[in-house]
Backbone:
């Protein structure tokens, strides 16, 4: 880390200046989750800027993002020091990294310490281990009390799930037929639309046990690399499961992808790297998710989402209990129907997809961070109090 650019100046802005930095301000999982937050920021109290160092992709999401931000700045042609100098020159109060250690990351910008407060959020589910990040945004599930020592950042816990969501995500009206999706006309459909690299041998073996225990069922997976399809089908055979009981879903536009979730009966999560955006997709489409929570941030995200929907009974702690729950729900249509109804209701009335509520809670966190900074106090973790939830009737109007 070079010498910091910011040397302790106290800015006296009428509005807190927040900059989100990412390479993913286009059709990407990060933007799909965050776009409504950007739209809902209180412009009377916050001046919000997108600092984009990704490709110049002009798609529908980029157009929506340009409208959501007060300022949209393309810095892909500037080096890290120049971007950091831009943040300093514009007196940014809070700089938020949305990448972490992921593709096209530029943590070097933050290493120059150009803003009084620097925060790690969403893109990387864990600590960045760097002294120039002050905070990580989390919740009590992904970072339980007592785990703070494993984080270089100070932990700020949101009152519900740490994961923001877009309640304006469109779901196509038309549902494909089973035949159009490559599914059999009858039988229980387990699915997992996570990237194939999240499928570990122990999770796959558990899935094969579930298929053996639920006669006539199939497992519907995301179709990634062709070699992955061949390898997974080969492994199914090795587990005495007909390889054709693995059905693969090709990539398609998000509204149609969400609509095809209606054909599935139950989403099976991966471990130790959970479904994150893919779990939100499933829940938003009304599909219950069964997860096995582990000991790390990345292995507890689906549990965070389910607890935000008041569905803790879908969170297990061992693969045997995870398999037993999946099999029980497959054999109990009435119980599964009740769970599905609760998912649908809580998506409307609960906090997980309440964009205004999330925005107000996050803004309260920003104000606490800035108060400490302006008082010359070091960063310190804290719990964010929940604002009053948006009236259900108002949310239904939005949805």
Residues:
């Amino acid at each position: 880390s070079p010498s910091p650019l910011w040397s302790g100046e106290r800015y006296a802005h009428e509005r807190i200046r927040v900059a989100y930095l990412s390479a993913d301000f286009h059709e990407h999982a990060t933007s799909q989750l965050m776009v409504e937050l950007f739209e809902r920021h209180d412009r009377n109290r916050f001046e919000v800027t997108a600092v984009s160092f990704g490709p110049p992709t002009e798609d529908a999401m980029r157009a929506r993002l340009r409208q959501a931000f007060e300022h949209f700045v393309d810095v892909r042609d500037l080096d890290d020091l120049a971007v950091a100098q831009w943040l300093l020159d514009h007196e940014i109060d809070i700089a938020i990294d949305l990448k972490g250690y992921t593709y096209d990351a530029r943590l070097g910008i933050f290493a120059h310490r150009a803003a009084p407060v620097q925060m790690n959020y969403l893109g990387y589910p864990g600590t960045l281990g760097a002294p120039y990040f002050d905070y990580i945004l989390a919740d009590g599930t992904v970072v339980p009390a007592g785990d703070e020592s494993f984080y270089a950042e100070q932990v700020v816990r949101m009152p519900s799930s740490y994961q923001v969501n877009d309640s304006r995500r469109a779901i196509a009206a038309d549902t494909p037929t089973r035949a159009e999706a490559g599914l059999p006309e009858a039988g229980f459909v387990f699915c997992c639309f996570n990237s194939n690299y999240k499928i570990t041998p122990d999770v796959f073996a558990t899935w094969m046990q579930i298929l053996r225990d639920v006669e006539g069922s199939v497992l519907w997976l995301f179709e990634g690399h062709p070699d992955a399809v061949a390898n997974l089908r080969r492994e199914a055979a090795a587990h005495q499961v007909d390889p054709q009981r693995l059905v693969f879903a090709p990539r398609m536009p998000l509204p149609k992808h969400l609509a095809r979730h209606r054909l599935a009966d139950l989403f099976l999560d991966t471990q130790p790297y959970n479904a994150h955006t893919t779990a939100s997709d499933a829940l938003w489409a009304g599909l219950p998710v069964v997860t096995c929570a582990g000991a790390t941030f990345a292995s507890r995200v689906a549990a965070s989402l389910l607890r935000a929907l008041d569905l803790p009974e879908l969170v297990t702690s061992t693969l045997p209990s995870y398999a037993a729950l999946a099999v029980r729900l497959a054999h109990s249509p009435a119980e599964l129907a009740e769970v599905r109804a609760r998912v649908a209701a809580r998506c409307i009335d609960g906090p997980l997809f309440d964009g205004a509520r999330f925005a107000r809670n996050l803004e309260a966190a920003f104000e606490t961070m800035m108060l400490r900074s302006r008082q010359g106090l070091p960063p310190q973790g804290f719990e964010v109090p929940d604002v009053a939830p948006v009236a259900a009737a108002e949310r239904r109007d939005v949805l």
